[in-house]
Automatic annotation (TrEMBL), chains A, B:
The gene is thiL. Belongs to the thiamine-monophosphate kinase family. It comes from Negadavirga shengliensis. Mg(2+) 2 binds at residues 55, 84. ATP binds at residues 114, 131-132, 158, 237. This is Thiamine-monophosphate kinase.
Amino acid sequence: MNKDKRTEISEIGEFGLIDRIHQGVKIKHASTVKGIGDDAAVIGEGKRLMVVTTDMLLEGVHFDLAYTPLKHLGFKAVAVNISDIAAMNAVPRQITVSVALSNRFPVEAVDELYEGINLAADHYQVDLVGGDTTASRSGLIISVTAVGEVEKEKISFRSGAKINDIICATGDLGAALMGLQVLEREKQVFLSNPEMQPDLEKYTYITGRQLRPDARMDIVHELRDLEIVPTSMMDISDGLASELFHISKASGVGVMIYEDKLPIDKQTYDTAVEFDLDPITCVLNGGEDYELLFTIRQEDFKKLEKHPDIHFIGHVTKAEEGLFLVTKSGTAVPLQAQGWKHF
Amino acid sequence: MNKDKRTEISEIGEFGLIDRIHQGVKIKHASTVKGIGDDAAVIGEGKRLMVVTTDMLLEGVHFDLAYTPLKHLGFKAVAVNISDIAAMNAVPRQITVSVALSNRFPVEAVDELYEGINLAADHYQVDLVGGDTTASRSGLIISVTAVGEVEKEKISFRSGAKINDIICATGDLGAALMGLQVLEREKQVFLSNPEMQPDLEKYTYITGRQLRPDARMDIVHELRDLEIVPTSMMDISDGLASELFHISKASGVGVMIYEDKLPIDKQTYDTAVEFDLDPITCVLNGGEDYELLFTIRQEDFKKLEKHPDIHFIGHVTKAEEGLFLVTKSGTAVPLQAQGWKHF
C-alpha cells in the first residue's frame, strides 16, 4: 500500500468501490455466464444454468439484537439471499450458512437461530448443505450463499429492459424502512425508561416486514405458469429509486414512473406521516423490502393485468430521456438514487 | 429460547455444535448428493457434479493485521476455500468474496486485499463472480465461497477409506503453527519495545506457510494424470490427528500411522525445539497447513512411490483397532485429536 495516499471509502461510495473491485477482475472460464454486476452470478454451460449469490449480515450494521428475535434473523438471512435468486427468475436449491458468534451466545441461542434458518429452508424448499461455525470477538455475523437453477432462456438480467416495456413492482414498498424507524424509536424509549413497555401493536405489519421479510418466489412461480419471462428483473433491497438506476444503467434505457401507481401500505403511509416523513420518499428510498422490480413486454400486460400483487408503476423510455417520476400533479421530476449508506 | 437453560458452546465444542446443527437439517432435493459433513457439499444430477464450500476469516480470530499483509490475507482467504475443493478431488471454477470493513480502512487497503484475491484467482484459475461489500463496526471480515466441478466417479469423500489402504499426506506439517508462534512472539517483542526490529529472516519458510498458504491443486492434477482416485480425502486445516479422526469416523475404520514417516520441515523442527515444543505434537495438532490427507488402494502405491512430495504415513485398519501412532521406539500410542479451539 502506498502510505502517501489515503482515499476514504466514503469518497468513492459503495458503488464506486464495487466498480473498482470489478475492474481488477478477469474472467477465464466460458462457464462464467455472468459475473459481478447482477443480483446473482450465472454459471454453467448447458441448457440449465446455476445461479449463485452471497450476502453477509452483521450485528450492529444490518441488525440490532435489542429488537431482532434470533429465529427471525435466521429466516431473514436466508430470505435475502433467496430474493437474489428470485431476481434472476431462478429457483433456489441449496444454501450454505456461515455463522460467527461470541461466547456470550449460549447453545440455545444457536438453536433458535438455526430454527429460523431451517424454517426458511423448508419455506423456500432449499437444502442446507454446508457452512462454517466460528468464534467472533465482536458481534454475530451470518453469511449465506444460495445456489439456484434456471433454464438458459428464462434468466432475467438487469440488462434486458427495452423501450416501451412496462415497469412492474410487487407487493408494497417502504414498509421495512418504517418498521425499522418504529423499532429504533421504541428501543430509545425503552433505554430511557426501562419500565415503559414498547407499544408495537399498531405497527405489526411494518415491523414484520423489517424483521422477517419474505422473498417473492411466489411471483417467480406465477410468472413461469403464465409463461412470462421478465425482460429485466432485480430485487428491491436498496430502495426502488436506486434499483431503477441499476436497470437503467445495465439496460441503457430511461424510465418514467408515476407517483399515483407506487404501492404503499396504509400502515406505512400513516407511520411515515407520524414520523414527519414524506411517504413517497419512503417508497422510493426505503431499503429491505425484498420485493421484485421487473419489466415486461407490452404484450404480456394482459396476462398480469388483474394480478392483485403486481403494480404497473411506469414504462421504459430512451436512455437520453433520463429517469423521471411523474407526481400526482402531473409534474415530471428527476429521480434521485440514495441507495446504501452503511459506510 | 428457553431462558431457564443456558448451555455454553464450550461445553459441547465445535464438533458438538456442528452435529447439533446437522441434526436439524432435512435434505429435500435429489440434486443434493452430499450436504454437511465433508470438505465441500456436492450437488447436481448428471455425470459432472458441482462442489461448493464456504469459509469465513475474521480479524482477531483467524488473522492479526499487526503482522498479516492484506495482500497475503486476500490470497489466503481464497486458498483456504480452494483447499476444500481440492479435498473433494475437484477443480475450482468460480469464487464469490464478501468483505466487511470499517472506515479505518482506506480504499488503498481494499485495493491491496483484492490484489491478493485476484492473484489467487489467477493462480487457481478461478473467476471472481460476485460478492458483497459492507461496513463493519469492528474488524475486517472476509467470507469466500468457492464452486468447483468434478466427474461423479472421481469424487473423494471422507467416507471411502478401506482396510489396508495406504494413508498419504502431502508436503510437510506443523509449519503454519510454528510460523504463527514466531509471528506472535515478534509482535510481543515489538509491543514491549517498538524500536526492536522483528528478526524473521531465519523463519521465512514457516511464516510464509502461516501467512500465505497454498492449496494443493497441483496434487489433484497429478493424481488425475496418474489415474488415481483417492479412496478418501480431506485437507489438513485443523491438524493431522483431528483429520484422521474425521476419516476414521466417516469411513468406519481405524488408522495406524508411524512417527518416522511424518513429514516435518527442518525449520519447523528447529523452531519447535526453540519454543520447547515437541515437534511431533506440532505435526499432529498444528492447524492451517492446508496440505492433503488421503488414502489410496495398495495397487496405486507403485504410481506414487517416487513422488517427492507425497508421504506414506501409515495404513487403514479395522474400526475396532482404533487410531494409533507408532513411535520411533516402536510403541503404539493412541492418537489424540485436539482440533479447533476458537471458542
